Amino acid sequence: MDSTPIIEEEESALILKELKEISNKHSSYLHQSSKPTASSSPKLQPLDSTRSAGKENNKDAGKDELDDSFIDDATTFLNKTSENRELNQYWYSKSTIETLCNAIRESIDICGGRRVAFLSTPSLFFSLTKDERDHCALLDFDTSWKSSSGYHFYDFNDPEGIEEHQRGTFDVIVIDPPFVSHSVWKKYATTARLLMRQDRTAHVITTTVDENAQLMSTLFDCKSVLFRPSIPHLVYQYSVFTNYASSVLGTKNLEIQMD
Fold first, then answer.
1. Residues 6+ apart with CB under 8 A from 117
2. Each residue of 166-194: pLDDT tens digit?
3. Residue 186: which region, alpha, beta or left (left: phi > 0; alpha: psi -120 to 50)?
4. Which are the contacts of 183, defined by CB distance < 8 A and separation ≥ 6?
5. Confidence (pLDDT) at 241
6. How far is 103 from 12, CA to CA, in rounded Å?
7. Most exposed residue of 147, 167, 180, 214, measured as fewest CB within 10 angstroms of its CB?
């Protein structure tokens, strides 16, 4: 998950409530996991930071502009880029990144395309090879990526603010919003529908909490798969949802204790 734009105060309160409820539901998992540190707390504090900051200040907050010229795998990405908690960035583990990238490659082969839109998923985008990224786009709020080829600024509060040449051109859509709120997901779904190739047969890969399973079905016709992602600094468990059958995602992730 990744960068977060400014959110109205009422919605922030709703998201906080949802996250607290989800954290409580996953308390058994938390006891099995390693004890969380100050840097591995849930996505609660960033909401307060976002609420108190002006949009332009938040947009420019965090890391300096990053050079992606030497990033083309999960190890390099994780070594060169730190999570920005003010933007709700929590990276997948190295093994999870590699599995999800292989699932994306599998998806491309199945659907016969090559263009992939990465919505708020920079760890996956930058873990592809440079040749693969030439056919992809990263839509993200974090402007530290702005010099990277394929980067496009994205604010989910403006879900239809997509450049005309991108509309109807993507074969695979990968989505991991910074929040689990239904209202946020609906905005991402609006964007995804605009990006999907015109025959509406694009593959969709999403990651979110199990509590959003019905929402994933409603918005994208996605179902959960056996593989679950490891997100080391996030203290509740996500699942992966797809609208197609994936053999790559059909096995359990041995990193996840609760599986």
1. 136, 137, 139, 166, 170, 172, 173, 174, 192, 195
2. 999 999 999 999 999 999 999 999 999 99
3. alpha
4. 11, 14
5. 98
6. 33
7. 214
Per the structure block, which two tokens stand in for 253?
């992730």
pLDDT score of 80: 78
Q: Which residues of 189-222 are buried (b: 16+ CB within 10 A; e: fewer)?
A: bebbbbbbbeeeebbbbbbbbbebeebbeebbeb
pLDDT at position 50? 29
SS3 state at 152: strand
User: Which of 251, 253, 250, 248 lies closest to 109 in space, CA to CA?
Assistant: 248
Cα–Cα dist 240/237, whole Å: 10
Q: Report residues of the chain scoring pLDDT below 70.
A: 1-72, 258-259
* DSSP characters over 40-87: G--TTHHHHHHHHS-HHHHHT-SSPPP--TT--SHHHHHHH----GGG
| Three-point CA angle 102, 104, 110, nearest 5° | 105
Taking CB atoms within 8 Å and a gap of at least 24, the contacts of 60-65 are 60/143, 61/86, 61/87, 62/86, 62/87, 62/142, 62/144, 63/142, 63/144, 64/144, 65/143, 65/144, 65/146, 65/147
pLDDT at 235: 82
| Residue 149: strand, helix, or coil | coil
Each residue's pLDDT tens digit, 22-50 = 555 444 444 344 333 322 223 433 322 22
For the question of whether the overall pTM of this predicted structure is more than 0.85, the answer is no
Please report the sign of the dihedral spanned by the C-alpha atoms of residue 67, residue 99, residue 1, residue 112.
positive
The pairing of strands 223-224 and 239-242 is: antiparallel
